[in-house]
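Recap quiz, item 2
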Amino acid sequence: MFKQTLNISTSPHLKLGVSTDDIMRNVVWAMLPASAFAVYAFGLSVFLLLVTSTAAAVLTEHLLCRWSGKESTVSDWSAVITGLLLGLTLPPAFPLWMAFVGSVIAVALGKFAFGGLGYNTFNPALVGRAVLQAAFPAAITTWHPAFLEGRFTDIASSTLALPFMEPTYDAVSGATPLSAFKFDGVAADSADLALGLVSGSAGETCALLIVLGGIYLVARNMMNWRIPVSILLTVYVLSGIMHWVDAEAYPSPAFMLFSGGLMLGAVFMATDMVASPLTSKGVVVYGVLIGLLVVVIRLWGGLPEGVMYAILLANAVSPHIDSALQNRVYGTVKKAKAA
Amino acid sequence: MGLFNFGHKTFRHGIHPPEHKSETNGLPIRQFAFAPLLVLPVSQHIGAPSKIIVREGQEVMRGQLLAEAGGYVSVPLHAPVSGRVRKIANVPTAKGEMSLGIYLEAFPASGQEVLERDGLDWQAATPEEILQGIQNAGIVGLGGAAFPTHVKLKVPEGKQCEVLLLNGIECEPYLTTDHRVMLEQADDIFMGIRYLLKATGAQRAIIGIEANKKDAAEHLSRNIPEGLPVTVEVVPVKYPQGSEKMLITSVMGKEVPSGGLPIDVGAVVVNVATTAEIGRLLPHGRGIQERVVTITGPGVKKKGNYLIPVGTPLRFVLEEVGVADNLSEVYLGGPMMGMAVSNLDISITKGTSGILAFTDNEVHRADKVYPCIKCGACVDACPLSLNPSQMGILAKFEAYDDMAANHNLMDCFECGSCSYVCPSNIPLVQYFRMSKAVVRKRAAAKKEAANV
């Protein structure tokens, strides 16, 4: 008896058993329905776009780790999230080489430069997208109609544009619902918006499937539901007030909720654990801030869409929200002073 | 999920690890065999070690004093069996270090009747006499902390004890000793309460029990003696409710001030098994010789709740109950706060509430430690609302003083909830244990420097 040696370890000896790569992998699963719909709506071009952006992100992460002499962190799935998420925010016929550049920048600048997973101040996918928006303002605002005939056999010519060449666009749909409203004063039908029967970035059109993914993550306790709920509520209430004040000038709250990248941003981007606050109170403040910025940019800003900048700005203040809103420590009257 | 705490009072946050209590909670307490050789360290409690008063070769009777209290924060040690003191030397302990102790050889054929002294009548005795009696009986907190009970019961000058809180929570998974004690030793518990009410001056007693021990709660409620001011309070199951602070919040709705003691909110908390021991020993002037231990875990063949003489070597215990071939780790205490043992030659002490044996299949090995992803799971788990995420980062940078000064590090009682939930497998509670030790050491060094 007792031939073998005993192992020792420190308490606790039980473990919940959900690991970081489990969470990341499940976030990828949760994005798949919206991704599948994007391919269904926009066809082969979007399939290539998502594959390119995801592969580029994974490759960048792998090579950067290798070059810096670290073990590759590709297996934690976070690079897949960054790549796929970036792809979902791009216009359907976005040139692949630009998407590739965007993914490289997202991982290298948005994540690796800060120290890798866990240290990024901003959501890496949004860093990539912000750079693309600055570098290729025409390409990133050139939209492609959904549900074209032959979308599963033909590839949009702009998709295959050669690097540094001016892409040619074959089927340009003038506008997304948001830009149509902003510049032409035409509001799309809310039901069409929710179901994704409109144009827009590849993965942002079908709000229902995005919400489905979000519900899956919340049910698995892998997402803080307070973030999307507080963002969406804020947008709904604020735009509702504005719409009530002047229904001509301001769109309905339902239009605001389901149009553009709000749903995708609220569910999959603002919820980046690393770049959002820790405490429940902090998370609500963060969500309200995003909602407020979205409404302000959309209604009074120069851009039709403001989700990206709203989230990036909120990411930047998230550490400050955290230090200002620490939980009250048990048995203390005043808050512990944050460092 | 602080938004939805309607109905029951409870403490903030906490976790729900799998309970595994049904494996032993239906098994009555059974007397364990006497080991041929007992190993008795003189430091089985927090405080000064006991002073040995026997010599090598001396024959002792069961219940006879082997060592007397080494000071106020100390308790005596009684012989758990009749036998002969074989050796007084360093003995192995759970912490891994050797410390002074007694090897006691049991007489194989002895009757093992217990030596009794003058008992203490709860009605006639003064509070001071009761406290003295509790110390004389060698009683320490049996929930696991092993802090001398008489010290804890001493209400400081200027404070008043309003409520005597009996801790029957037993929130550690797997452990069922308190559960069985409440079911089988109700009379002893009530007798203990009489002594404790008198010693503390409390007007009433509350027994706090988690909802997974409803049978014990009902049994105790039914058997409360006439006129004894005791109520039983059932609280929802949540770890770490068995901690004094959490229990006070759950039952009384008050928070113990940071750095303070339960008496600061008018409460004294005593474990139910400790109370039962007081009720059983004091009337007969006896000392503590054995305790109830839950022996369980996937690697144990004859699981159960056993009454085991203090000093019984772990090896003897595991040989008696039988363990699986692929035994991997053995824990003293519960799986959340218990200690993995490195040596089976250590013995059961007064603070051992459980022995758990896990095989390779159940031991969770963190194959990979990821960076903190700021998911906030630890923040939502910490019963004290500390910020383990941030403290974990500070500990990595060895910013121990910052942790203590600005993040209430010293409040952490190492329940392990943060480590339990951490998806990145960061050994948070281990960081904090280490950080606390460093802070304490620095404070002691500072004090010393000031005195020189």
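The two ends of chain A are 53 Å apart (CA to CA).
The mean pLDDT of chain A is 88.
End of item.
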